[in-house]
Specification:
Hypothetical Protein Aq_1857, Chain: A; 2 helices; alpha+beta; six-stranded mixed sheet; three-stranded mixed sheet; globular; 44% strand; 117 residues
């Protein structure tokens, strides 16, 4: 469903260790909003919910809810470091349009609810 690079998993493991809250999942989701209609959500969760798919990449456990799963199929999550800092990137083969700021997208089957940037 999703692919997580080793670099991204390493960064996530570091974040989990720094938080010091024990084992956690990383929830990957899609929500309505943003200029193009859909936005990504990444966050920590203590437990899987009913209907969540649990995936493991490089020792990190991820959760994807049923509604987000079709939109996230084939997504690649990476972490890129530059002289100005680092950040997670998400490449989605299902996205047919993105906004200028790069934080929202739409697919051929789901346009979400666009907002003003």
């Amino acid at each position: 469903m999703i692919v997580v690079t080793e670099q991204a998993a390493h960064q996530i493991r570091d974040m989990i260790e720094q938080a010091g809250e024990g084992e956690q999942y990383v929830r990957v989701a899609v929500k309505g909003g943003g200029c193009s209609g859909l936005s990504y959500g990444l966050g920590f969760d203590k437990e899987a919910g009913e209907g969540d798919t649990v995936l493991e990449h490089h020792g990190v456990k991820f959760l994807v809810d049923q509604e987000s799963a079709p939109i996230l199929k084939g997504v690649v999550i990476d972490y890129k470091q530059s002289m100005l800092g680092g950040g997670f990137t998400i490449e989605n083969p299902n996205a047919i349009a993105t906004c200028g700021c790069g934080s929202s997208f739409r697919t051929a089957t789901n346009t979400g609810t666009p907002e003003q940037c």
